[in-house]
Amino acid sequence: MSIYRPGKDKKQVIDNILKDLDPSLREIARVILENMSLEELAEVDREELYKRLKNQAKQ
User: What pTM did the predictor assign?
Assistant: First the structure.
């Protein structure tokens, strides 16, 4: 299931995702999510996002 659905506010969706994350990942997650287009947010699911975050945190 995608993390963004049309009709929802992008900022609200991002804030909801961030509150569930480990504090050490929040800042990098915010940057990644804010740089994604609405189309990308509609296609990505939480599991895929977590994988991206873990890969980014390792770098």
Answer: 0.69
